[in-house]
Amino acid sequence: MSKINKILIANRGEIALRIMRTARELNIQTVAIFSEADRNSPHVRFADEAICIGPPPSHQSYLLGDKIIEICQKLNVDAIHPGYGFLSENAAFCKKVIEAGLIFIGPSPESIELMGDKLTSKHTVAKYNIPMVPGTPDAVTDRSIAKEKSLEIGYPVLIKASGGGGGKGMRVVEKEEDFDEQMDRAVSEAITSFGNGAVFIEKYITAPKHIEIQVLGDQHGNVVHLFERECSIQRRHQKVVEEAPSAVLTPEIREAMGRCAVDVAKACNYYGAGTVEFIVDEHLDFYFLEMNTRLQVEHPVTELITGIDLVKEMIRIAEGESISFKQEDIHIQGHAIEIRVCAEDPRNNFLPDVGTLNTYIRPEGNGVRVDDGFEQGMAIPIFYDPMIAKLITYGKNREEAIVKMIRAIDEFKISGIQTTLPFCKFVMQHEAFLSGNFDTRFISLYYSPELLDELPDAEEEMLAAALANFLMTNKKTNNSTIANSTTIENSNWKANRLAYR
After folding, report:
1. Considering 90, 273, 323, 333, which has the largest number of Cβ atoms within 10 A of its Cβ?
2. What's the confidence (pLDDT) of residue 499?
3. Phi, psi (rounded to 5 degrees) for 67
4. 294 is catalytic
């Protein structure tokens, strides 16, 4: 058992704040690192100590593993929490942290390395008979062999970077004559993004749902799962909306997926918080995709439906404690939804936007949680991921969580930049989402930018509802009243109301 008294958070923004808040509850001191672009960020002020790590580009600041370790040694830090992104799944960094006598709040470097390569991870879990998408067992470099395998598997196929993630190095090939072009693109992206051009081929599931299972393991061999998260609404293979639990899984499928996720974790002797990702087809057959060896962006929805603080569990596990509960102790309670509020323009192919948060007012109220790292007046840096905040709502059921989310989106006031808020409201009101009958093709099937212009704003909805209520409850309705109501409905009532403010 190694008691942790001081943690350095090797990250920035909302996840740094998220980790610091739990550390404070555990009476653990925190150290923030920050680039020159983040000097005025809330996580810098919240920490007990803060050190500038370097210039804005991440390769000159947040990715400087050796410098981060040096800071830890100078400030008598016991442990490093990497958050997500940056160095969180870097096995070499994890190994250096341990060799320096520090605690890495996450899995072992061996687990990170095993699960970091998609092909290696599949070989690792094969002995547990985990369902796999049909595909090549190893990386392919010979173009003629790759084409032959694709014909055996059957088009459409998916070319994927072996060491990839986040949608990079991933190309769908609909027919044989497109293979060469898409292969070249996938390899080029893989080399650029990961320094590794190895790719493999698997059957492309045409209507896939992306569902993941949260797992926790300790250093004594205990592993539990904390149910699933539905993450199918994506742009550029990156998630925008997540929820827990899934609206479509049966208890039997949920249990089977949970068992498989636990087996995947056991296959690599995993400890800490991790996520096992699956593809689920239209028949609800599921296939292992990969394992993310870190805390996920969408972890709050799991925390809300289970009542478990995942960061707290990660710290306790890193100290050598056993998981304090058993699988049968965990139950799903209610429903939670998370949207990623990103500085992106949903009217312009979700391209990142830059500018200043001239207005930034968070929603509040029962069942609303905002994890963020920005304040009004701050500029959005161009150097990092465009996510500004995570907006999470919780209700006793899915319908209540959706209603709360729509209300919270309307209350979230942001000006100075374009954000994904209008798109997320569009999702919340769409029939496919409401029914649960959607998959990763949601944007291509249902969304176009002009549809955002058809969404009524919050004030229109409020006044229209008030007018409808008045007309329905007015017991003295007569011809004159009906005539007057028609006049009201056809008038520019919003403009008139604004004129008298």
Report:
1. 273
2. 36
3. -65, -40
4. yes
User: For residue 27, what are the CA distances in angstroms to 14, 253, 473?
Assistant: 20, 40, 56
Distance CA 20, CA 311 (A): 10
d(C-alpha 406, C-alpha 364), whole Å: 12
Helix 91-99 with 109-116: angle, nearest 10 deg: 170
Is residue 384 within 8 A of residue 84, CB to CB? The reply is: no
Q: From the CA atom positions of the chain, what is the Rg in Å?
A: 24
CA-to-CA distance for 192 and 181, rounded, in angstroms? 17
Residue 143's pLDDT band, with cuts at 50, 70 and 90, is: confident
Per-residue pLDDT tens for 282-321? 999 999 999 999 999 999 999 999 999 999 999 999 999 9
> Whole-angstrom Cα distance, residue 317 to residue 329?
18
User: At CA 15, angle to CA 221 and CA 306, rounded to 5?
Assistant: 50
Tokens of 422: 């209008």
Beta bridge partners of 9: 32, 81
What is the C-alpha to C-alpha distance for residues 379 and 356, in angstroms, rounded to an integer?
Answer: 4
pLDDT mean over 414-421: 97
| Marked catalytic residue, from 294, 340, 362, 369 | 294
- Tokens representing 132 are 């796999």
Q: How far is CA 500 from CA 280, 460, 493, 497, in A?
A: 54, 16, 11, 6
Q: Which among 235, 234, 446, 445 has a CA at the least distance from the CA of 349?
A: 235
* Length in residues, the chain: 501
Q: Give the integer Cα–Cα distance in Å for 249 and 255.
A: 10
Residue 144, SS3 per DSSP: helix
What is the 3-state composition of the chain as percent helix, strand, coil, each rounded to the nearest 5?
Answer: 40, 25, 35
If we measure between CA atoms, which residue out of 168, 85, 90, 160 comes closest to residue 119? Answer: 160
Cis peptide before 156 (omega within 30 of 0): yes
Contacts of 444 (CB under 8 A, 6+ apart): none
**Runs of H (alpha helix) within 141-178:** 143-153
What pLDDT score does 297 carry?
97
How far, in Å, CA of 160 to CA of 425, rounded?
Answer: 32
Residue 116, classed as helix, strand or coil, is helix
Q: Given the DSSP bridges, would you call strands 199-203 and 170-173 parallel, antiparallel or unpaired? A: unpaired
Which residue from 86, 332, 95, 57 is spatially nearest to 214, judged by alpha carbons? 332
Tens of pLDDT along 201-230?
999 998 999 999 999 999 999 999 999 999
CA-wise closest residue to 375 among 424, 425, 416, 418 = 416
> What is the CB neighbour count within 10 angstroms for residue 156?
15
**How much is the pTM?**
0.85
- Integer angstrom CA distances of residue 482 from 464, 469, 474, 487: 16, 14, 11, 9
